[in-house]
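Narrative of activities, Objective 1.

The group set out to show that a structural description can be obtained from nothing but a protein's sequence at a throughput compatible with the screening campaign. Below is one input-output pair from the validation batch, recorded exactly as produced.
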Amino acid sequence: SDLFTKIAEVIDSRTDIVISTNDSDDSSSDGLTQVVSTLPKPLHNPVSAVDYTDTTMRHILGGESSPNHLTYRGDKRLADDMLLKRVLGFLLHQEHISDHNEEDFGAYETKAGTLDSHLTLDRTAAEAINLLPPPHGGVATCVVGGDVNTNSLYGVLNKCKTKMGSRTLEIWLRQPLVKYKQILRRQEAVSAMVENQLNLHRLRDEGLSVLSGVDLDKLCSTILSFTAACSSDGTGAMGNTSAALESLYKLHYFADGQLPRLIEALEEICPSDANNEEEDKVVAPPTGGDQEEEEGCALRSGLASLKRVQKELVRSVQLVEAVLDFDAAPRAFLVKPQFDEELTDVRAELDAIEVEKDQLHEEMNELWEEVSGSAGQVRLENSESSGGAGGNASGGSCVWQFRLPKTNDSKILQQRLKHEVTVHRLLKNGVYFSTKALRQLGTKKHDLLAEYESRQRDIVKNAMSVAGTYVPVLERASVVVAELDVLASLAHAAVQSPHGYCRPIMTDGEEDGMGIELEEARHPCVELQQRETQFISNDIKLVFGSSSFLIVTGPNMGGKSTYIRSLGAIITMAQIGSYVPCKSAKINIVHHILARVGAGDVQDRGISTFMAEMLEASSILQAATKRSLIIIDELGRGTSTFDGYGLASAISEYIVQRIGCMTVFATHFHELTALEESEHVVKNCHVTAQKATDGSNGLTFLYKVCIISPFLCFNVYDTAS
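Output recorded for this entry:
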């Protein structure tokens, strides 16, 4: 398939990958990625691969009913991702682990891994805070609400102008930062643009907008594919030279046209004295890494990197200008005829054909004026643009057709000019026809272009081999442009918010007094969906040593879920460097966001509602550390009231006494509020509701969360219920 062909081309172009040809160990390949030529037999077919993986895992985890195997079966990501199961099966096969070895029975267990370089979001947490747009379009949108711009954090923050920026924003949301300096670096860039909105708009409208139709990653892939084809025997593998020359044209347009405009717009934001100091620095990759710890604003380092890219692409501009015929581009992509005398001769004939074509067009207009009395109505169009068949090896047009805008004109053509013209078809936009001289001229041009194509192949091959050396520079430019685009998008989202965003104050520690303090916090998605009513903001205070565990009670539909989910959304936004929807915010960096939300079973895997709750709760308790944020929206609903309360109480006590992390626990077990009496870090909150004063049974939800005493919590809850 095309996908595997592209993967093979990328692998061939890399120097840190070797192809494994045998099973023997080769010490010389240490540190290299090895590629196996074929998959083992059990993994050839996707279905058999899944069966092989499941059978082997059931054996090594201790059998069908073992706790380890139940945990494996309950992993939604493994169940939904067939490719992931095939990878797991390949690992088992390579390690010679199988269900035939009795010694392996129950000898293994599965453990959740940790990613220390970024904030870890489990799947439930990502769905709970609406991290990415809901799958399956309309169905999920009916549940989540809003549209593509308001039903997820990605939709709210994605104001990117480029494709690279949109992809990078998704990466940032999936992998928020945990290092203080990296977050501060992004915050400073966003803050600089928020405080100077004029320069922000200029950067977006004049600098980044010119790149809106450009995909530098795709351009790099295209150039690499042609470079790989040129390195093979002969030039036939390269295919159409027009596509190769078009990639050179895009390279030139970026380096000589778009990049200077972006640099000029960026210079308005960054102080001139910082430009020289940062000129030799390279901006850090948007996905993190040690480079991102360098001091200084991301805008300054980005500007320095773009200037360096501009210098390194100077010779690529000269290469394209020496090879490409800009007089023909972008209508046709041809090599300059000055490279070869025969090319010059062919080009002269092609130019003569263009002149003759214009003469035929003029003659047809005169003829049509004689028979119809209307002047200048005949249009000459390429057969490709008019939907007809035809084309040439170099991508330019070689077959033309005349067009009259009125379909009724076909009657005049067939009656008055039936010997001079041939009518091809009638469409809504007119009648298409041609003459014998026009068709012969098109055929002649087709033949000349084919000859031009064959003579320019060696030149294009050499040019693409050189252009391939600039791919690393383009990749670096793509990283920088994407990061700048995302930072500008975050600033734009903060500026355009109807209720205002603030820059959060970030801290990094575990000492008492640190934590999360949000004033008038709002849910970034829900507030944009409520156009007729004002969103009710709430304060959230989670502080180590005093209020790190919040128990939220209140009536159904009262706003508990929105309250706790807004916390997760705000933390994620803050740790990608964004402003947050609060009046003020002080946030201690968290390393994990773990969630237990909703209730549901997995029938096809034999997982009941209760078992799903227990598996998720077990996963949270195993992965949580003091720097985690746990969000629990109802726990213990899959069993009896007494058992459910017992589980909720035991898990709450374990989190408070053993883990000590910041937790928000929404529940209808109002007996849990008694935990505040024995644990000083536990605070009770209640979502308020007001009973009707006219004697009716009406109830008005106030959506305001208040910290109250345990006794008052019982009374308010009973009244609301």
